[in-house]
Amino acid sequence: LIQQGIQKGNLKFSDQANLLLGMAQLQAHKNAEARKSFAEVAKSSNEGYARLGKLWELHLESGKGAETAKN
User: Fold this and answer.
1) What is the C-alpha separation between 2 and 47, in angstroms, rounded?
2) Closest CA to 22 of 13, 35, 9
3) Nearest CA-CA partner of 68 in 28, 27, 35
4) pLDDT digits (tens, 9 = 90+) for 52-64
5) For 39-54, how does the pLDDT look when each residue is reduced to its tens digit (9 = 90+)?
6) DSSP assignment, residue 64?
7) DSSP tag of 63
8) Is the pLDDT of residue 68 over 70?
9) How many CB atoms lie within 10 A of CB 56?
10) What is the DSSP string of 24-56?
11) 12 secondary structure, DSSP code
């Protein structure tokens, strides 16, 4: 559902939607898709969201993404 909403467009908070989508994908063990969502957030013009996107990318690269999803 989140992905469908993002695809519709005209979101007020698209960065937040992509961040939440990435977190949901990570929880569902869809790491490749989560990486794409976090990369989209990392390109944000909002410095705070860009940092969050990069931090989530680092989290996935560290290999802890799967561990977090299990907890």
Assistant:
1) 23
2) 35
3) 27
4) 999 999 999 998 7
5) 999 999 999 999 999 9
6) -
7) T
8) no
9) 22
10) HHHHTT-HHHHHHHHHHHHT-SSHHHHHHHHHH
11) S
